[in-house]
UniProtKB/TrEMBL annotation:
GO cellular component: endoplasmic reticulum membrane
Membrane topology: Multi-pass membrane protein
Hydrolase listed as a keyword: no
Domain of life: Eukaryota
Protein name as it appears in the record: OLC1v1021910C1
CDD domains the UniProt entry points to: DnaJ (cd06257)
Signal peptide range in chain numbering: 1-25
Amino acid sequence: MAPEISWRGLTATLVVLLLIQPSISIYCDDDDCYDLLGVSQYANSSEIKKAYYKLSLKHHPDKNPDPESKKLFVKIANAYEILKDESTRAQYDYAIAHPEEVFYNTARYYQAYYGHKTDPRAVLVGLLLVLSAFQYMNQLTRYKQALDMVKRTPAYKNKLKALELERTGGATNRKKSNKQMNKKMEEDLSNELELQIKGAEKPSVWGLVGVRFILLPYAAGKMLLWCVRWLWRYKVKRAPYSWEDASYLTRRSLGVPHDSWNYIDESTKEDLIGRRLWEKSNLQSYMAEMRKESKRRR
Ligand SMILES: *[C@@H]1O[C@H](CO)[C@@H](O)[C@H](O)[C@H]1NC(C)=O
């Protein structure tokens, strides 16, 4: 059961994630920072400082146990953080005067406030990125090593020779286009080989930790749906297995990986599926049959 990625599902997941994500709020949220401190937009720094000390004393949680007051205390402190610094105050004034530059203002806000502090979300994203990069490099190296090893085997060299002969057919202009030919052949062969090398899959973006993490809700949802559908169809309604599901059961009982199954020809697949190998007795008799066959061949 390998849920495959579909673009429709991916888009749906992203939409859900964006909805779950709390809406981005910058500076003093929906409040005006100056209003929170009760000062005018033209107040100088000492006025702002004075206003802040007065209000923070009034709403300090130690003096004022009212939960609303506590909320206000936090808001006031935040507003003061922004207005006490000339540069962040200027940024805030700019954001108020240019509400249309949403992205620029948001970026500047995060630059100022999370640039030096570490946002746990940023740490998580960074960690996932680093892990994914390592994973990708590792996969790429292993894949290349496996490919190199295969290319050094006599079987590969013979195949290359055979292919070369077949293509050129001892043609006259062999020298001229030899290099080009070789390159193309090499590519063809390695494409063919990619399908055959097990244990070293070509690196895929979908398998990376970071991508998996983002797709987790989607994959889990898809898996759940799959299980429910399976139970309903085959356990409750006792419907006969569809071709696709019978393929899956057959593949699983024989321990054939998904990719390899795709390269089995249709008539063999049909024969295998017809044997209903997911039933233990059928599998056992099939295995016994295969053993006998291989002995006979030897
Ligand atoms: C700020 O403004 C107040 C009142 O207008 C004034 O008394 C004070 O000197 C000013 N302070 C500075 C640093 O400009």
